[in-house]
Each structure stands twice: as structure tokens, then as C-alpha cells.
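Input record (one chain):
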Amino acid sequence: MSTTPKVALVTGATQGLGLALVEGLARRMTPDDTVYLTGRDAARVAEAAAAMPATGARVRGELLDVADPRAAAELAGLLRERHGGVDVVAGNAVMRVGPDDDMRALIDAYTEVNNFGTTRLLRAFAPLVRDGGRFLVVGSSLGTLHHLAPVLHDRFDGLTSLEEVDAQVAAWRDAVKDGSARAQSWPGFVNIPSKVWQVAAVRALAGQRREEDARRGILLAAVCPGMINTPTSGLWWDVSGAPSPEQAAVPLLDLALGPVDPGHYGELVRFGRVLPWRPEWRPERRAAS
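The corresponding structure, as predicted from the sequence alone:
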């Protein structure tokens, strides 16, 4: 990265992993740098920013509701005016749901945050990333085709634009709403398709930007922090032995501020290793006669 003051932005940053990422970035960056702590609730943003330790980079709170179709572009314009660009973007905003939630009633709001919010962030901030910068979308190891029925794979392979990704997300959303998702072989656990769509969005944009980003030393990738001990994760799994948000943030911070591995570009990375997008196919061996 350049030696000029750096700018980082984290979405969904008022609690959990997002808050840990802001604190970790600020600690690793210099007093000349700025880390933007963003969220959809102004009071929580202000409270979280005020509580940050006074070490390293300055932490600045900004309102960003990724479900608002205009918010990401407006904030991107503001940061362009203030700084001319950004060096690190971590897309961590997520609408969390529990096992007892009625997803037919919530799927509109869920996709607006988790999926359309992701593509809005990519559209708005990818053009602002400076040479040597990083754009990381926080996802999950669920975000690969391994977790979907093979009949669905063609809906994801070959997507070349964020517009195509959005169209496919809308079709899946509508199938959840009208109750036809199961008949189309979609899993009942909506987090799986949502996470796969997030990785698909990164892959689609990476296909457009790969050569230019390679020349400029930019990393665009999806990242999996692994299981984290948070109250929301505890609704689904036993997370008593899982890392804290602060511990889970460490490998993401290494990606955000460390050297670029060209093999990570456009991929889903967990603990420094790429998770394969497609299932590995191995033909069955015939028994020896």
C-alpha cells in the first residue's frame, strides 16, 4: 500500500465481528489513518465509535444502512470527497435470523441487507479502492456449490455481472416467498443460498476487474471467519468452544493489511486457504476383476 494516510471502512460494525475488525484495523494502522465504523442505527454507531480505544488510527462513525438503495453510493461519494479513495473495505453487514423465524415473511428484508446490500457495496466502493487496497466480503464456508443440489449449480456458474447476480437472487427470494423454493431443490436453511450468492457476486465482479486489479495490487475476495462465539450463532449451533469475535478477526485483518496472495483473488478464503467453489468430482473406481 502507499505511504499516504490510509482509509478503511467496515460495515455492520457496531457489534461482534464488525466491531472487532474496526478495533483491529485501528490498532494496526497509524494515527494518520482513518477507520470508518458504520452501521444502520445512528445511536449505536456513535456509541461504538466513542468507545473505541484511543490507539492507532482515528475511528470515525458514519451511518450506512446497506438496505437503503442509495446509502452506499452516497457514502462512497462522501469518502471520495474527503480522502480521494479507500484502502480497505470489509463488507460485514448482515441481517441475522433464528431457527424459529418465518423466512417467507422476512426474506425481503433479509436479501435487501445480506445480498442486495453486498452488491450495492461492491458497486459503490470497488471503484474507490486505491492501488494496493483490499475489498473483503465477509461470508461463510457455506458459500460454495458444495452445499447446493447439483441441479442448482448452473444458476451460479457463468454469472458475469452484479446485475445477473441480483436477478438470480430476486428469483430465489420470490421462490421463498411463494413457497416454491423446496420444489426447486433450494435448501430450507436460507443462509446457504444467501452465502453462495455473496461469493457469486465477488466472483462476478472479479471476472470484470481481474487484470486491472492484478496490475494495481488490489485484492478482492470473500472471506470466511469460521464459527464465532456470538449470541446469534448460538441460536443455531453450540458455539461454547468457538473463537471470540476478536480472535476470529485476526486472519481477516492479516488479509486486509498483509501481502497479497494472487491465488486468493476472486475466491472464498478461510484461514488463509481458498475453499473450492465447485465440488471435486472423482469417478468411482471399478473393483478389480
